């Protein structure tokens, strides 16, 4: 089976490595040629010169920055007969534009919004929020299972909004942990023991166990940047407002912290670096 991947950033490269290791023929395209150099030693991977060259694939995966880039990619995939799986996080208006384009051009399209990071992509441990035509999802079942786990949520819109909400909740938890991390150095307790103690009680969370140690040890991994998280927060608030919910002060506060951190150049690796924003504020 041949898989085309459009967008070979951290997640796209991780998925490519996983699928090659599981016996798929994988080809991919990215506007940044350095992505090809990173994957140059990956057997059964073919770099492409254009998006349209991926039309010979059975499935095409889209991992692009925004819905705008998705539309541009779809224009090059008109008349494609395989299944397009869109993993791009986007806002309400962007998704509507994409769905209108899909319907007008008769493309086989489903949404699969990603949870977890690049290391999970490479290991085949991703979680997907999936929406769209059920018959297309059923045909994609084996591919999804080779990439991780998935839950079918009905419509493309459902998959997209659940992803946005999930990411914003994750980010809100991280922002709170970043505030709390400021007192870690002042406590006379081993840092590993601090994490263990907090994770044993009601404060336990995935972010506590994964991102809090980064904060208190000042050691950050490349996972999910502040810039990308800011984009997701803005799109989530747009969705919420479209549903008639106009008062959400905590989510607005989280969005503002992301904007300020990004403006200061903080968080190129991961949102855990928001703790550096608080350090800067508290030291000024």
Automatic annotation (TrEMBL):
Gene3D superfamilies, per the entry: N-(1-d-carboxylethyl)-l-norvaline Dehydrogenase, domain 2, NAD(P)-binding Rossmann-like Domain
Domain 3-hydroxyisobutyrate dehydrogenase-like NAD-binding: 159-273
Listed GO MF terms: NAD binding; NADP binding; oxidoreductase activity
Record keywords: NAD, Oxidoreductase
Record domain 6-phosphogluconate dehydrogenase NADP-binding: where: 2-152
One Pfam family matching this protein: NAD_binding_11
Superkingdom of the organism of origin: Archaea
SUPFAM superfamilies the record matches: 6-phosphogluconate dehydrogenase C-terminal domain-like, NAD(P)-binding Rossmann-fold domains
UniProt-listed PANTHER family: 3-HYDROXYISOBUTYRATE DEHYDROGENASE-LIKE 1, MITOCHONDRIAL-RELATED
Protein name: Beta-hydroxyacid dehydrogenase, 3-hydroxyisobutyrate dehydrogenase
Species for this entry: Caldisphaera lagunensis (strain DSM 15908 / JCM 11604 / ANMR 0165 / IC-154)
